[in-house]
Design goal:
Layout (H helix, E strand, L loop, with lengths): L1 E2 L6 E2 L20 H28 L7 H23 L4 H7 L1 H30 L11 H21 L8 H9 L2 H13 L7 H28 L2 E10 L4 E8 L12 E7 L7 E5 L9 E6 L16 E8 L12 E6 L3 H14 L5 E7 L8 H5 L5 E7 L12 E2 L1 H8 L2 H4 L1 E5 L2 H13 L7 E2 L6
Helix pairs in contact: 1-2, 1-3, 2-4, 2-7, 2-8, 3-4, 4-5, 5-7, 7-8
Length: 461
């Protein structure tokens, strides 16, 4: 391995602080077949969302004299379709992960939750305004309206808690339980819609909404009842080894099976069963190379769950659901690679570097790895021992007086100075905390790096 040391900088956003998951994985992309898959899924989604309102308009015998009433009805039909399809977006479906990546699916899920919430919130307001009556806001009017009003209140609670979870300091595990309760909102909306004397009295629309409910209910049961018991693979913690003062690697061996295949850089959902401790599921990079027979998860202590990772014991049980993600060294036509990592964001990149080492991939690679202090450098000895075709630049934001390598924050000029010719044709993998990623992405584009060669994945729960 070649090592560069000169007076340049670290990450402008500082070292990685990922919470209970190592956010900031990279993405592959740019393939024509993947673009077609994405377009196809977007088209299917749009049809499913807009079909109820389209059918209602086509089947309508007469129209209300109040335009706001009609708009309110269409808001309800479209909003409920969006709401029911939300379940599919959170089910970790591999055929959605492959073309989009869980980060995009999750982001789309959040955006559509806001759209659905606005449409459903507008529904009773528009009906009331159109009919110039406040009867719709009287829960005692009749049971059909009462269910709708209950769903309306439930809607504000679910969407509000999801959007303001971090601001309200809601525990992640508590929020997960509350979020799963959103299936109740789907059921309430379904009962209200079919009970009201409206467009849903048409047989075609009733069949469609029954199908939507069956889809949402089936996926919910699959995700929450089947997958936890049959979708995870059992592993045994073989050992726990320290990487730095606050980062540890769990090495896990398969129990009763031969393991699974993954691409370097992908991640897993890991659930540890440890005596006396709450069992929680969190996403972590599979830090091992696919050439290895065991799984590795390198975890930084930065949250309620990860702060206890060093207390994990050999023979503790690990349940793994994997693989996920599109951060992978799959670009066979790439002449060389540029890796940019911050803190624990090194984990998917080290999986790639290990794979390159183990398979004899001699393409040139440059890693710029940024941390706060020297003691924060994860895998330092292993990085120093990489083959000569891989150059590593360690950058410290707060070095001590003995540090002779790069220091300070990383700027656009410093990336250009270090990367040089790599910027012309290398595939760039970016992995780190969100503030770092936003700034470095801006730098790379300003330096003329084609977006098709920049790979990243925002992953944060």
């Amino acid at each position: 391995m070649a090592t560069q040391e000169n007076d340049t900088g670290g990450l402008e956003s500082g070292p990685a602080d990922q919470g209970d998951s190592d956010a900031g994985r990279a993405e592959t992309g740019g393939r024509p077949d993947r673009a077609f898959q994405r377009f196809s899924w977007y088209a299917v989604y749009a049809v499913l969302v807009l079909l109820p309102a389209t059918l209602a308009a086509a089947l309508r015998d007469s129209w209300s004299s109040h335009a706001l009433v009609e708009i309110g009805r269409f808001c309800a039909l479209t909003g409920f379709s969006l709401l029911a399809l939300q379940v599919a977006l959170t089910a970790r479906l591999k055929w959605l992960d492959r073309p989009f990546g869980i980060d995009r699916v999750t982001g789309f899920h959040r955006n559509m939750a806001v759209v659905a919430g606005l449409l459903l919130a507008a529904h009773p307001i528009l009906l009331a305004a159109g009919r110039e009556t406040f009867m719709l806001f009287q829960p005692w009017a009749n049971w059909r309206l009462g269910i709708g009003q209950l769903a309306w209140v439930f809607l504000f609670g679910v969407v509000g808690a999801a959007l303001a979870r971090k601001d309200l300091f809601i525990d992640y595990q508590v929020w997960r339980v509350l979020h799963k309760g959103a299936i109740g909102l789907v059921v309430l909306g379904f009962v209200h819609g079919l009970a009201m004397p409206s467009d849903t009295q048409h047989t075609t629309l009733r069949v469609y909404f029954w199908a939507l409910l069956a889809l949402a209910g089936g996926l919910f049961l699959w995700r929450n009842l089947y997958a936890p018991f049959f979708g995870r693979r059992k592993y045994r913690v073989a050992d726990v080894s320290p990487e730095t003062h606050d980062t540890f690697t769990l090495r896990m061996e398969p129990v009763g099976h031969e393991g699974f295949r993954w691409d370097p850089g992908q991640f897993m959902f890991l659930k540890l069963r440890r005596p006396g401790r709450r069992s929680e599921e969190h996403p972590f990079t599979i830090a091992a190379s696919p050439t290895e027979k065991t799984l590795k998860a390198t975890v930084k202590q930065s949250g309620d769950f990860t702060n206890t990772i060093d207390r994990t014991q050999p023979d503790d049980t690990a349940l793994v659901e994997a693989p996920f993600g599109r951060f992978s060294l799959v670009h066979e036509d790439a002449p060389r690679f540029l890796f940019l990592a911050g803190g624990v964001g090194i984990t998917p990149i080290v999986s790639m570097l290990r794979f390159m080492r183990d398979t004899g991939d001699d393409r040139p690679a440059l890693l710029i790895y940024c941390n706060n202090e020297k003691r924060d450098i994860i895998f330092r000895d292993e990085l120093d021992a990489l083959p000569d075709n891989i150059t590593v630049v360690h950058v410290l934001a707060k070095p001590d007086e003995h540090w002779t390598g790069p220091s300070g924050w990383l700027t656009e000029e410093k990336i250009g100075e270090h990367a040089g010719a790599f910027l012309e044709d290398a595939h760039v993998y970016l992995c780190g905390p969100p503030p770092m990623m936003r700034k470095v992405l801006r730098y790379l584009r300003s330096l003329g790096v084609d977006s098709g060669r920049i790979h990243y994945e925002r992953f944060s729960l």
